[in-house]
Design brief:
alpha/beta, Inosine-uridine Nucleoside N-ribohydrolase, Chain A, two-stranded antiparallel sheet, about 20% strand, binds alpha-D-ribofuranose, binds calcium ion
Length: about 325
């Protein structure tokens, strides 16, 4: 079978970097046709530069990288240097990229790429606030029926939130964008923190990643060592959820995930719960089931696959 064509929309972010490297280490199954960047974990200038660093680390400077929206549709940007460090990808010792960004704005690229591709060919994977994709849908609604699927890291339900008690970071930063995408009618698969919290990256696994001796794997392990410094007040062990990589894992091995088709709505009005993903897991509302919700992952085969694929990079 031909590899599945995907566009990765991202705010690197160490866990975003893992998701991208995981995908680039899986060329038989996934073809990353483009990367779009958004303000999120850190401001856009840094997320764009970090995306270029990651493709160069993977030896894939051929992949076009586009800068998109610097901030959310309505709210003011909230960043997460407290998790990712001032550069957004602290821990890795990577040179300033020599690969240029594309001149085209990411939103214009999304519209053009989706309109030019055969209907149902492209999947968009969002790993940060969904601003770029939402803006593309508002600008050109005809892209909506042309998309195969949107697979996102974001949201939370039984787990609550990580940015506020009710909201996960990606959705909290731009709840209005998430609302546009979830209500658009496009097939949505959501990987919330309920799922990513079951994908706990351990020190032992990072040692095995480093032991591959490959530069991409070593730098990934180095950035993970910074990333896992945050959260000792939240997690009982030194393991940390590798959130965004769970999106790539789903594309490669969906059978590893407990999943259910549900109705999901986004709170965009309540001051205390804005950004909450209201998941009708028991289908009590009778509302349209607009989202496949991933609840749990089988961690051992997931991490074995990610080790194999990132370890396959140079
Ligand atoms: O809540 C986790 C998400 O927020 C991840 O995508 C992480 O990179 C941050 O963007
Ligand atoms: Ca992210």
């Amino acid at each position: 079978m031909a590899p599945r064509k995907i566009i990765i929309d991202t705010d690197p972010g160490q866990d975003d970097a893992f998701a991208i490297l995981f995908a680039l280490g899986s060329p038989a199954e996934l073809e990353v046709v483009g990367i779009t960047t958004v303000g999120g974990n850190v401001p856009l200038a840094l997320t764009a530069e970090n995306a270029l660093k990651v493709i160069e680390l993977a030896g894939r400077a051929d992949i076009p990288v586009y800068a998109g929206c610097p901030g959310p549709m309505v709210k003011k940007l909230k960043t997460a240097e407290y998790v990712h460090g001032p550069t957004g990808m602290d821990g890795a010792d990577l040179p300033r990229p020599t690969t240029p960004l594309q001149d085209e704005h990411a939103v214009n690229y999304l519209v053009r790429a989706i309109m030019d591709a055969p209907e149902g060919e492209l999947t968009v994977c969002t790993l940060g606030p969904m601003t770029n994709l939402a803006m593309a849908m508002v600008m050109e609604p005809r892209i909506i029926p042309r998309l195969r699927e949107v697979v996102l890291m974001g949201g939370g339900f039984f787990q609550g939130g990580n940015a506020t008690p009710a909201a996960e970071f990606n959705i909290f930063v731009d709840p209005h964008a998430a609302h546009v995408v979830f209500e658009s009618g496009v097939p949505v698969t959501m990987c919330p923190i309920d799922c990513t919290y079951t994908a706990e990256m351990t020190v032992e696994w990072l040692d095995r990643l480093r032991a591959t001796g490959k530069r991409a794997a070593i730098e990934a392990a180095n950035m993970a060592d910074f990333y896992r410094q945050y959260g000792s007040h939240k997690f009982a062990t030194s393991a940390r959820p590798i959130h965004d990589a769970c999106v790539t894992g789903y594309l490669l091995a969906p059978e590893l995930y407990e999943q259910r088709l549900c109705n999901v709505t986004i709170d965009i009005v309540s001051p205390e719960t804005i950004g909450m993903t209201l998941v009708d897991w028991w289908h009590v509302t009778g509302k349209r089931k607009n989202c496949t919700v991933l609840r749990r992952i089988d961690p051992d085969p997931f991490f074995a696959l990610m080790l194999e694929r990132i370890g396959a990079l140079a």
